[in-house]
Amino acid sequence: MAEETIQGGTMEDYAKYAKSLAVDIPEITWKDVGNVALDFTPIIGDIKGGYETVQMIGDELSKEDPNYYMIGALGGLGAAATIIGLVPGVGDLAKTAIMAGARRVAQGASDVGRGALEFVDRIEVDPNTLGALGGNVRLKPKVTGVVDVGDGVYKSVDDLTAELGGNVMQQGLRYSDDASTNAIIKNYLQNQNRGSALTKGGYVEDTSLGRMKVARGTVPLQEMGSEIDFSTRVQTQPEPFDYQKAIDEGAQFMSIKGDRASGTGSILSVNDIPLVNPVAREGGYEYATEAGNLLDNRMYASDPSILERQRRKAEALSGQVKDPKTGEILEEGVPVYGTFFNAAGDNVNFNTMVADTTLNMIPNMKITKKAAKQFDEKLRERIPDWPGLGKMEASDLEKAKEYLFAPNRGEARKAFSEEMAKPRSMKLGFPDQASVRAAVSKADMLGMGSGDATGRMIAQIDYNAPIDPISNHMTYPSGLKRVEGTPVYRMADERGNFRDVPTGMFFNRFYDDRIIDDVVPPEATTIRSMELRQADQPATKELNDIIQEYLYQTDNTRRGYPYNR
Predict the structure, then answer these.
(1) pLDDT for residue 299
(2) How far apart (Å, rounded) are the C-alpha atoms in residues 241 and 93?
C-alpha cells in the first residue's frame, strides 16, 4: 500500500520541511493532528508557530462553532489565504473573520514566531461581548508597555515593576506624603465648583481654606486610596503633538469630552477593602493608546449615534467636498484632530467600572440584609425594575451586575452610584462612592477642574470611515476611527514634555463666542455647552504662541519666566 499523501506530500516530507524551519517537531501521525488539522499541514511553513500552531488551528476547527478570528490570528497573513482555500465550504463571514484575525496580529508577527503556545495565552475572548468578526476576541498586550504614572511621566512596566518590587501600585492620598496630600486637597477644595468634586454630598470641616463644606463621602479625602495591578492592562506611549505640523496642514481641532477613568491595570482594593474579583480599568483618554484600540485605529468610544454626529462634524470642519450623488471625494479635506478634555470628577458614574467595583466590594463589607433591603427600596423609586441586592449572595450580586451591565443601562448605573453616595446609604455601610470613583480614575486628575487636562489625547479623526461597531469597551458599544497610520498624540511643550492645557485656552474661540455684550458666562455653563456639542478651533501660529508661553511660564522645572528665556 502506497504511503498516504496530502496535497502531493507525505508526512515525512512535511516533517523534513518543518525541521528546515528550525521548528521543534514532535513525532506525529495524521491521527495526532486530527482530520480537520490534516488539511492544514501543507501550510506549516507559512505559520511561524510551526506544528503546534497547526494543531491548535485544527483543534479550533473541530469545534461546533469555530472561532475563525482566532484561527486567522494563529495562522497570520502568510497563511490566511491558504487556510481559507483549504477550509471546505467556508462562508463569507468566516473568511472575513479569518482575515481580520490575521491582520490584527500582522504588526506583531515576531510574537507568533516565539511560539504558538505563548501566543495563544495572549488571546482572550470576552464572554460578555458578541462579535462574529472578532469583536469579542483580542490579543492581550505583552507586559512590555508603559504606565502613565502622573504628570505626563511614563515608565515601562518592567521598570515600574522593579521600582515597586512587584506589579501592584498604590494610588491615592492614603499612600501619599503629607506635603503632596495637602497640596492636592487644597486644589480639590478650590475647584469644587469647577468639577473636581467626586460626589454631590459633603461634610462641613476645617480646611486650609477655612471652614467649608467638603464634597466627599464618609471617607476623608486623605484616607482614600486603591491598589492597582498595573500589569493586566498596559498602555502604549503617545507621541508629543507637533503643533507646527498642524499649522502647516491648515488643520482643525474638535473637542471630545471624556471622563477621568484610567485605562491602566485592574483594581484590587479600595481603602484596603479587597475586591472579590479585580475590575479592569478601560476608559478615559487612555482608551486611544490601549494596545488593541491602537492597532485597530479606534480613538474614542461612545454610542453610535453620538459618534456619527461627531464624524459628520469633523467632515464638515475639514472642508472636504463630495459628489452629492455618488459620494466621490472631489476635494480632500484638511486634518481634523479630536482633542480630549476632561469632564467632572463624578462623570465616571455612567461607566460600568464604578458599579462593578462597588459590587465586588460589598461581600467583604459588614452590610446587613436589612440594609440591602432599605437600599433596594429607595433605588426602586428611581428604577422600578431594579432586581435588587437581595441577600447579597453571589447569585444576587450577579443578577444586579447583569442588569446594570445590559445595553442602554447607563442611566441606571448613574442612579445606582448616586443612591449609594447618599448619606442614608453611607450610614448603612455601603462602599464609599467618592473613593470608588477616585479608584477608577487617573490619580493625577484628582483636584482638577473640568477642562483642565485638555490635550491628553489628540488624534486625527478618520471622518471618511464608518463608525466601528466594535468598541473593546464594556460601557460604550462603538468606536470612532483614527486615520490609519497616524499616531496618538498628547499635548507637549517645546521640549517634548507632556503638559495639560486649559480648555478655555485651547478652544478660546468657543469661549469668546459665548461672551455677549461683554458679559462672560459662568465657566461651568461653557463647559456644559462643550459637552453637548463639539467646540472647534483652527490651528494657528497665534494660538500656538499663547499655549507655548503658558506652558513655559507654568513649568515648575525652570526658574521661571523670564530668567532663562
Answers:
(1) 97
(2) 39
